[in-house]
């Protein structure tokens, strides 16, 4: 049902249930917000979006108040402006003012709102209260001194990801956002997905940086520094340089990294193709043996820790194939080291990831099958953008260059790993071939694409009705795993053969290390960029990659060989649902 009202004396007609905030934007008025985010349920905790409604006894919060028929709303009266200004000044009185050295400088929503409401002097006295900065996590730093108690991090962690690692602690002036037992995020059930860092409007949550260590390695003449870049990074890095959302920058990224003096510029897409051969062979073997079905993909380290912590009874279903990042790290210090005659101890393996959880993954003690820590340092998309700017590189001005051989060639199937459903689509393209010996004719598997939280489809492979499911965001994963658990308990088997899970909503394009302001609409556009690159490439099936064929012939033998299992596969652990620590069996 449509209703009519006026906003600043301009008539607006909207669907019943539309908020004042949404209705105002339709007629061209932008009401400032701070706690509001379009992906989260409005809670009105900051009060900056207040407006006046004629006849109402008090101002209303536009983000959570539905417009009513006949209302006369005013968004810019003297009373409204005064209230907004006072709210922002009160927040600033208890906020650390080191903007120039803050990681969110020029991307800070509080900074933007302060300018928007006209703050040029501070009338309230400063409240100097210092909290200890939490550095216990391998992935995320939490600085309570910059927290504005908007609650976004709790919402995303509890309502969307269902991890519940963060909570409000204490009361009144001493209220803070903390982990459940106030022992630090590294001693909690946090899965390191970093969605809290993406949704934090200020600099209270951000990635633990490895940039100084990478600069040190690049400047060490005794080190040979190799770099890999995840599929999703190529669809976002351009945003950090003012390029349009979803601009594909694969070639420019390779060129920029060479100019930063990396000794070899490779691509995680290569090992994404390799993952498909290892994982695809694994799933075919499980289906033939009718054992450990469904196979659940294990590329997303935040998802893997979630599985270990909350669903340890399903660990045996996870693919033993390492993630593409981990596979690359191993090969850089074995296959590549042998090929180039470089002592592996001199190789520094750096990865550029959309994901804060990859920092946690790199430090997992079992990921050392090369004899060394397979991946030395992990940089997020945000970190590598900062490094490029420090080096005086403008990505927009870079030429397009290919990645280096032999770990740089990739197919379209590898590129779509960065999108939700992409791993499943890539797997099906090759699984069909591995089972039948024939190529799947229509390789654009649209049923597993898109931003729906859980997607299902069935594909007929020579009489086998292969049923698959895709979930992105850990809340959706929980729904799917509860269903699988119930089926296994009640019927002894699940209806699914393969399940893809990505920890972050939207997949890797929405990872915790991606550019700030990563809402779901932007993530959908980034996904389309990856599917567009897939369509543009001459090879679109992982098993067709000639460099993958070569590495099996020269080094690994065949998919799931003894050597492949030693180097490219891993195992998982049961973790405590209290502090996320490994539980001894």
Topology:
Layout: E1 2-7, E2 10-15, H1 20-26, E3 50-53, E4 60-61, E5 72-74, H2 78-93, H3 109-116, E6 140-142, H4 152-160, E7 166-169, E8 176-179, H5 195-199, E9 205-207, H6 211-218, E10 224-229, H7 250-259, E11 264-265, H8 268-289, E12 295-296, H9 301-310, H10 324-332, H11 335-340, E13 347-353, H12 357-362, E14 377-380, H13 381-390, H14 412-415, H15 422-436, E15 454-461, E16 464-472, H16 474-491, E17 498-502, H17 520-536, H18 546-556, H19 562-568
Helix pairs in contact: 8-10, 8-15
CATH class of the largest domain: Alpha Beta
Please compute the radius of gyration using only Cα atoms. 25 Å
Mean pLDDT across the residues is 94
Give the name of the CATH architecture of the largest domain: 3-Layer(aba) Sandwich
Structural class: alpha/beta
Distance between the termini: 59 Å
Q: In what order do the strands lie side by side in the largest sheet?
A: 2-1-5-3-4
Share in helix:
25-40%
In brief, what are we looking at here?
The chain is an alpha/beta fold.
Describe, in plain words, how this protein is organized in 3D.
This protein has three domains: 2-91, Roll (Ubiquitin-like (UB roll)); 129-208, Alpha-Beta Plaits; 212-568, Rossmann fold, CATH 3.40.50. The protein has helices spanning 20-26, 78-93, 109-116, 152-160, 195-199, 211-218, 250-259, 268-289, 301-310, 324-332, 335-340, 357-362, 381-390, 412-415, 422-436, 474-491, 520-536, 546-556, 562-568, and strands at residues 2-7, 10-15, 50-53, 60-61, 72-74, 140-142, 166-169, 176-179, 205-207, 224-229, 264-265, 295-296, 347-353, 377-380, 454-461, 464-472, 498-502. Helix 8 (268-289) packs across helix 10. It is 34% helix and 13% strand. It contains 19 helices and 17 strands. A hairpin with a 6-residue loop joins strand 3 and strand 4 (60-61). The protein is α/β, with parallel strands linked by helices and 585 residues long. The longest helix is centred in the middle third of the chain and has 22 residues, at 268-289. The relative contact order is 0.12. Strands 2-1-5-3-4 form a five-stranded mixed β-sheet, with helices on both faces. The model has no long low-confidence stretch (mean pLDDT 94).
